[in-house]
Fold each of these.
Amino acid sequence: MKKVLVMEDEANIRSFVVINLKRAGYETIEAGDGAEALEQIRKNPDIKVALLDIMLPGEMDGFEVCRRIRAGNSQMGIIMLTARTQEMDKVTGLMTGADDYVTKPFSPAELTARVDALYRRTGGDQTQSTDEIAQPPFLLNTRNRTLSKNGKPVKLTQVEYSIVKLFMENPGKALSREEILVAVWGKDYIGELKIVDVNIRRLRVKLEDDPQNPSRVMTVWGYGYKWGA
Ligand code: CA
């Protein structure tokens, strides 16, 4: 069964989300606050995707829940539910470990499309045949979907892994943001291009010796990014 966690304190929004995900074939686990969400994840280790509302009652907001999930789990797909009134810059800046975000109010079609896309990615790509791409100091293992730098493992989300894989398969090639979006999120993705930049920013922090002066994940102004091999 395809399990999705829905953490949302407003009961009417939560049931709207749950009804639509069930219709799309998902089993839903509900939580009304952060503590409940973390407890449900502990009880249901097979949850593949979590939808996290940001503004919540209690001590933890959605970002904190996201951080705590990521501390022990880099595989789960995480989508933040944001309010239109929240400044996007703040939201993206704080998006420390999420793969995507959806702005309220959202349509059922938009929501299920995002969950489907993330679910497919977190399901793991079984068709990999080659094993490793070595570009010192980086070593990408496409069987285990892991990356190491100087022999030390780098914790990546599934989305970050997919971006690094795309880069390492195309060293030195300028990739447009659209190209990256299509390759990583799929051509049916209906979110904003900005999600590419959010993930790139995070990758730099994880991969670069000096994230402010990147030597790997290079910006191609007005176009996109390239992997400086
Ligand atoms: Ca809320």
Amino acid sequence: MESSKNLQGDLESMRVFHRSGATKEISWRKSQLKGLLSFLEDNEVDIMKALKQDLGKHYIEAFRDEIGTLIKSLNLALKSLKTWMSPQKAKLPAIALLSTAELVSEPLGLVLIFSSWNFPIGLSLEPLIGALAAGNTVVLKPSELSPTCSSLLANTMPTYLDGKAVKVIQGGSDVGEQLLKHRWDKIFFTGSPRVAQIVMTAAAKFLTPVVLELGGKCPAVFDSLSSSWDREAAVKRILVGKFGTCAGQACITIDYVLVEKKFQPILVDLMMTITRQMFGDNPQESNCMARIVNKQNFLRLKNLLADPAVKSSIVYGGKIDEQNLFIEPTILVDPPFESELMTEEIFGPLLPIITLEKIEDSIEFIKLRPKPLAIYAFTKSKTLERRLISETSSGSVTFNDAIIQYAADAIPFGGVGESGMGRYHGKFSFDTFSHEKAVVRRSFFSDFWFRYPPWNDHKLQLFRVTYNYDYLGIVLVILGLKRARKSSHCSI
Ligand code: NAD
């Protein structure tokens, strides 16, 4: 990375550019969004190759989870930007008779985005779209663990964007720490809770607001579905969301499955059959499984499996190849709750199935653990659905599918509690990178004289009604006007 003095100078230039007001123009914002669109369209094959190189992702996964969702988000932002930027009218109480109010979104200034390696293009550009749509200048720090993607972002993407407003800085934790020494108007962080604490501590020094997109253990509740069609569809959706999504290295992947005792053997059987159908007898030969990102993460996963009690719970898979950073899709039944597999975020292609007496016990099971980023439930029971929504807390709840919520623009994406804070996607991204300024305009045409001293009891009554009612309040004010004017009685 450049010297700290140069960086300071660059950041100051970005601030000066922001202060010039250029980034507030809708034409400038659209030109940046169109630049990002062109970057994705012109470099689609290079992006797919980079994702293959860094993570062994199939090009379909690359399009489904990164390029495709980003193009969708960019098209939405381009189509909606004018509406998003328009001031929103707001209602005022009767005390402010003949006034208008609105919310005006303004850019925050210079923002910093940290992204993680598992969706290195998607998780860099999705917040970048929001930051640019909202008219900010941006420094993006992608992860050092996906170096091919990071260098594509650092070397190619800027040629499509305004260099005075967007900078991509490559590097590891040392570079991240350097960046955190500077003042930012917002920090948007995707990554682990450990580093999130470092980010939040550094942000506190400047009172910088943060968005933390973290992870955790996302459960899937599997109810006893009676139709074989439903069962198969549910199992396919679980397996593609786990083994077929960056080999389970995703924050919203299913970490473990909860199932009722009587239905467990049916589920396990079906899972084994469909895993084989999807990835073949030798999944390492299939090109549909991503690789573990690096040796350190591989060893972490290997270590999870090394626990003898965990090892003996494997019913499918379990083969690992350290040299090629490959781990087979692995299904485990009832590993010990106290094992690291069941206490830490797995982030890999290991899928524990936990057997419960009754499916309703899943609610207590989830409630006793940290609030997850996502809860999934495969059920046709409206009662279970209602109970899960009302009795548990998580970033999102999805019924009868997995991962799909990531692609939805109309609902916010983000965690709660230990799974994170803040939200984005669609208009939520625009709002996350904007300040909604409250603007009030009063008229001189009318005024309530009881707003001013000297005070009396009637004036208190008039305040009460004008704060609590709209037009009725105004009528009462007019009726009370005479008495209030004349009285000078104060009872307290
Ligand atoms: P990480 O915390 O190690 O790294 C995230 C970013 O922070 C990277 O850019 C990294 O270079 C930087 N960084 C690392 N150490 C730093 C330091 N000391 N100071 C400043 N910056 C530093 O996370 P990761 O391994 O890239 O990602 C895995 C985690 O991210 C998992 O826990 C996963 O659940 C979570 N995640 C969450 C989401 C989400 O959208 N909620 C998405 C993907 C991953």
